[in-house]
Amino acid sequence: MKSFINLSLLIVFGFSLAGCEQQKSVSTTEAAPEVPAVVAEIPKYSAKVFFETTSYGLPGSAGHAFSADGKSLLMSSDTTGVFNVYALPLDGGTPEPLTQSTDNATFAVSWFPADNRILYTYDGGGNELNHVFVREEDGSTRDLTPGDELKAGFLAWSGDGQSFYLTSTERNGKSFDVYRYAVSDYSREIVFENPGYQISAISDDGRWLALDKPRTSADSDIFVVDLQGDNPEPMLITSHMGNISYGTFEFTRDNQSLVYATDEFGEFNQAWKYDLQSGKSTVLVEAPWDVSYITFSPSGRYQVSGVNADARTEVTLLDTQSGAEVSLPELPPGDLRSIRFSADETHIALIVNADDSPSNIHVIDLAEGHSHQLTQALNPAIDQAHLVKSEVIRSKSFDGLEIPSILYRPHGASAQNPVPALVLVHGGPGGQTRTGYRAIVQHLVNHGYAILGANNRGSSGYGKTFYHLDDKRHGEEDLQDIVYGRAYLESLDWVDGNRVGIIGGSYGGYMVAAALAFEPEAFEVGIDIFGVTNWERTLASIPPWWEAFKEALYDEMGDPATDAERHHRISPLFHAENIIKPLLVVQGANDPRVLQVESDELVAAVQANEVPVEYLVFPDEGHGFRKRENRISASDAYVKFLDIYLKGEGRQ
């Protein structure tokens, strides 16, 4: 729950929103060399070249990625610079555009199970008020969730393919009710009027609904509702004492069990299975790291599980009939994501992503045992050998706590040629910096900046104790972890220890402003992207659709009614007179999470200090970047700012 300002740096640093599940494989891991390979005369590529790399994404796991005839995949892509929906032929043919938006990012939801209709979604320029649309076979479209100031989403298909379920806040603006739509004519009925839970999953037969209820950031419960029973009231299935976290994965395909995550038995989440008839639970998957997800093929024959193993997710594909792990054919080095099955379970679509290779879609023929790559994401103007692979490292913080981080070393960096560096802070606050391709990171590294992607205390993926170390301590110990990240960079002989800056988005943007305000000598420059500056205002203006976990949010961050003094104390805006280092601020005008006024006020306050401050506002973005031209403009601005104020090039 902690990622309440979950920018998901996938957006800020140039990824797509679609198909971003953390599904990766141990079978195709890549080893980062301790010293980058020597490549002669590495050119400096422009941001435009990096961002003309194409982003691809598959529908979420609840949607159908394969068309009814099995000949095409549904995908989202920013080929034109704006995300749209395409039909990608499995035979390698040219993708067919199914939407043609020129100004608003549009994402694939699902094929219809028996014909060529599709569901897709978009919001209003980043305001996060998504609607769900249908595209008919003749190309006409219809908003299935009309209305103003509502947020809607796709939940699931029924097992028989005759209906689908959408969620919407149309009733009161804050609670996601569940509606069942008929495939034939889109007539609908409400099946659950939500009194204040998070809607998590519905069984294929439409009988069972799973609800999550966070109480605090460390304690949560799962309820189930028998929608066909005489008394369809939520029933608690995770009665417990103390702080234990529970969260829904999904129902089994036979509608007999609910698979869920819990940290009841140790530091990390395990996957357990709850029998809906007997009420008994049994362990399904356990590992020395968090189990990130469990999903199943259409018939339930295949079980896919992902484990978050040190910033990479190890994927296991299990044949539940034989109990044997399924071996996949050889794939390019990288991590597996977004595993999707065809209806007959003969084919799998998936994405392969690596530090030096952006996401590409592959299809696997399980019967024949071979794979085929359907996309070429990397801009052909870039030589892949010029990109840099990351290394997972650990360094000590002020109190001896080990902080895991992802380190990128530019080609040519050495003791004889030390380079400037940046500490990159993820969003969340409970996010995680992970391995994988990020255009902005590669752009910065290509221009000679080392990057340390820090996973400060409070980051997810390293156990519940580590995860909760920053509760009601934000801007304090976690900020010191970031400051000590600089100390680690200074210890590297190939880093210029006198030229270290800080960059981050969302909560990471807050950490940038906090570092400059509360540790004004720690970094030479800062780049604040969509960052919180005034916790008093942010916590008072949370979007209404966060109502279901507001209590848990306040438990972690503090209730504005009782913790206003601390919120004031940790807000950089109220201490901006301390900011003495150059600052670049980036903001989306439509951001519903961090309002533009926060950045406006911070910039004005720093300008009053007569400190160099640059301000970039995007009128058509929200909490993150969705348009390629904006990503290019922002990335160019980062490098230009750093070249002047960190490298000192061109400074008068």
How would you sum up this structure, described in words?
With 652 residues, the protein is an alpha+beta fold. Helices cover 15% and strands 31% of the residues. It is built from eleven helices and 36 strands. The strands form eight sheets. An eight-stranded mixed beta sheet has the order 29-30-32-31-33-34-35-36, sandwiched between helices. β35, α10 and β36 (613-618) form a beta-alpha-beta unit. The radius of gyration is 24 Å and the shape is globular. The two termini are 47 Å apart. Mean pLDDT is 90; it is low at 1-34.
In short:
The chain is of the alpha+beta class and 652 residues long. It contains eleven helices and 36 strands. Strands 29-30-32-31-33-34-35-36 form an eight-stranded mixed beta sheet, with helices on both faces.
Average per-residue pLDDT, rounded, comes to 90
Considering DSSP H and I runs of 4 or more, what fraction of the residues is helical? Answer: 10-25%
Beta content:
25-35%
Specify the number of helices: 11
Unreliable parts: 1-34
Judged by helices, strands and strand pairing, the structural class is alpha+beta
Gyration radius over CA: 24 Å
| Largest sheet strand order | 29-30-32-31-33-34-35-36
Q: List how many beta strands DSSP finds.
A: 36
Shape descriptor reads globular
Biggest beta-sheet profile: 8 strands, mixed
N-to-C span: 47 Å
